[in-house]
């Protein structure tokens, strides 16, 4: 068989998680919590599993869940969304991203992604017949955090640019955008026909009093944007694989043409449970910044006497550690070495980039219980 993705191997998340299991290592690689969702949400799922909620859901999602999403969007981002024509429940955020790309990109089109870029973007672009154009995020003396080089972005846009994919709060670096960034982007693309895909799965996990600026909030950007988010990240239930896409009606119509053939419908009892839980516990997501900031701060404090260097993440539940003072071997090799030799698994940053990195950085997930973080940090401090 001729492969459609001949140079694509197994995702690094599967590779490192498998290695962690093989070595009985503490797995801080793949981004999932080590704790369960709220018991009240689990009870709701159990209720619907044991009632009449086990047949196909509507293709676009259970109505009460779409209404709950619309209410949240109005409350947080100030936009009234039509739950019938502008919200689609997806089989995880990854399916939402895939369907948006397939709905938008045609053979010969170019899609701009920002490196380090989440590894599902480029395969989806290639399967649509498009080409990924990698624009690296940069670190400068004036701004040591990763950020967009707007001049470089402007230079990358041309008549073939069909889509730009954004992911903020950013996986793996944890950086966020501010309101002026969205205004700058609007100015750059104003005279183009490009669409936007905003991967906002970490929308509720921002720290230090920062505000998350969804593309939904920005009037000009909203008109050309697919926004994808994740219940798994918000409710500590990544294994449920339930997400959603919010987009203007004309974009949602095209999105659903793809979505219906990718998965048709999403698991029914969990949709019902999430709809109820969002109405009954609307403040859950408001507690996430405090909850995860405490874990970030604990992890960073535990590492203060290590040989790693770090800047505390501004969002997500990932922390980047720079190991330049320890060794100069490449990050993929070092991530595997740490997993085998000290029993802590991480994700190398270079796998998210088209061009080789000069920095030496690994990503660690701190969405874990305190004991696990303490054990992992103790091992890392021995280096």
Distance between the termini: 46 Å
In percent, how much strand structure appears in the residues? Answer: 5-15%
Shape from CA axes? globular
What is the level 1 CATH name of the largest domain? Alpha Beta
Q: What number is the mean pLDDT?
A: 96
Number of helices: 14
- Helix percentage: 25-40%
Radius of gyration: 20 Å
Please describe the biggest sheet, giving its number of strands, its sense, and whether it closes into a barrel. 7 strands, mixed
Under CATH, the topology of the largest domain can be stated as Aspartate Aminotransferase, domain 2
Helix/strand/pairing category:
alpha/beta
* Oligomeric assembly: single chain
Counting structural domains, the number is 2
Strand order, main sheet: write it out: 2-8-7-6-5-3-4
Sequence-ordered SSE layout with sheet pairings:
Layout: H1 12-23, E1 26-27, H2 39-49, H3 63-77, E2 87-90, H4 92-104, E3 110-115, H5 121-127, E4 131-136, H6 150-156, E5 161-167, H7 179-189, E6 195-199, H8 219-222, E7 225-230, H9 231-234, E8 243-246, H10 249-262, H11 268-280, H12 288-302, E9 318-322, H13 331-341, E10 344-345, E11 347-348, E12 361-365, H14 370-380
Parallel strand pairs: 1-10, 3-4, 3-5, 5-6, 6-7
Antiparallel strand pairs: 2-8, 7-8, 9-12, 11-12
